Amino acid sequence: MKIAYTRDGAGAPVLLIHGVGGNAGNWDPIATRLRTRFDVMAMDLRGHGGSDLIRGHVDVDDFARDAVQVLDDARVDRCGVAGFSLGGAVALALALNFPERVDKLALIGTVCGRSPQQQARALERVEYLRQHGTAALAEGNRDRWFSVAFRRANPDVVDRRVAEVSASDTESYLRAFTIFCTAEFAGRLHEIRAPTLVVTGEHDVAATPGMAHAMGERIAGAQVHVLAKLHHSVLIEAPAAVTALLE
């Protein structure tokens, strides 16, 4: 399995993992600053960017093993790991299944501990995706991803994000989005020993502030930051704030 990644910078190693329908480049505004102090690796999840497409069953543990493959290829034994959205679930799987590889952990816009009602709504979104396709789902996500103020001030940025997701390989996106909507680690969070940062937007309807605070309570010593007025796409809307927290 080909798993593409970029690498640049010098210092302590850090692995960045993007969300559904994205690629390593989603981290560029943040990675540019981190590279002045860290050895930064940003991977393309399978089915995204330059990595092999997804054909057949895949689960979050497969994505975690892909991350280990990147670390092995880069000859990095242990590093800091930051995951956004689906990438946060992958980072959790990596920290839980391969704790010896994770020095520090950052979970950004990460869904964990859905209620039965939230889980039902997530599965409804998977079914909507099956019936209507990636472009329809992406178009409907504008207000889930971005604040009203950001959408009004940066329509071109929002359009590019919608177009990026809409252009995703159909099967790869469906299988990755299904993992995003079903992966669950709430019952294992107490196992995490790595110093952990949890970040989400105040108005994120997927990775809610309630979820962030619950993760903070279950992960020993975790720090929780809720970014005021923001929705889900905090990497795009508030890269400076996210970078400062990671640093």
Number of strands: 7
Strand content: 15-25%
Strand arrangement, major sheet = 1-3-2-4-5-6-7
What class do helices, strands and sheet pairing give?
A: alpha/beta
Low-pLDDT sequence parts: none
First-to-last CA distance: 32 Å
Spatial shape? globular
Q: For the report, how would you describe the main beta sheet?
A: 7 strands, mixed
What portion of residues is helical?
40-55%
Order of helices and strands: EEHEHEHEHHHHHHEHEHH
Mean pLDDT: 97
Task: Give the C-alpha Rg.
Answer: 16 Å
Count of helical stretches: 12
Short précis:
The chain is α/β, with parallel strands linked by helices and 247 residues long. The protein has twelve helices and seven strands. A seven-stranded mixed β-sheet has the order 1-3-2-4-5-6-7, sandwiched between helices.
How is this structure best described in words?
With 247 residues, the chain is an alpha/beta fold. It has 12 helices and 7 strands. A 7-stranded mixed sheet has the order 1-3-2-4-5-6-7, with helices on both faces. Helix 1 (28-34) links the parallel strand 2 (12-17) and strand 3. The longest helix is centred in the middle third of the chain and has 17 residues, at 116-132.
Descriptive labels:
247 residues, alpha/beta, 7-stranded mixed β-sheet, 12 helices, 17% strand
Secondary structure layout plus pairing:
Blueprint: E1 5-9, E2 12-17, H1 28-34, E3 38-43, H2 60-73, E4 79-84, H3 86-97, E5 102-108, H4 116-132, H5 134-139, H6 142-145, H7 148-153, H8 155-166, H9 170-182, E6 196-201, H10 209-218, E7 223-227, H11 234-237, H12 239-246
Parallel strand pairs: 2-3, 2-4, 4-5, 5-6, 6-7
Antiparallel strand pairs: 1-3
Helix pairs in contact: 1-12, 2-3, 4-9
